[in-house]
Amino acid sequence: MKKINQYFYAGCIAYTVASIILIIICFIKNKEDFQVKSYASMLIIIILIQIILYFMENLQVKSQFVHMSLELFMIIIITFILGMPTKLIRIDSIYDVIEIITILIVNYVITILSLYLNSRNDADYINKILKEHR
């Protein structure tokens, strides 16, 4: 159950970060056309990514770097495969591809850092409680 909660938490972080990044980009590009359908599509894509990442845990990849690279690769592939038909992603040039991949990498790094800090805080709290009961 803890694993499922972790993926739910990661999905929430990813959705929030993606929303903030997209809002900032819309303001920078002076666009205000990101609609409810786009947010719903983004939510569905993030949920599907979290489900696939959950099942990828069974791959038993030993290297953390390889595991994270594989996760990021899957996120990019899924986002492009599902994002283009839902019109969440529009690619007019190579710069659009680079922008999308950059957004995905930033979102992934922020999500992973948030999960790491949350786990570290939990561990520190547990260690503090254990020290107090000795």
UniProtKB/TrEMBL annotation:
Transmembrane portions of the chain: 6-27, 39-56, 68-85, 97-117
Assigned keywords, A-Z: Membrane, Transmembrane, Transmembrane helix
Protein name according to UniProt: DUF3021 domain-containing protein
Species of provenance: Clostridium scatologenes
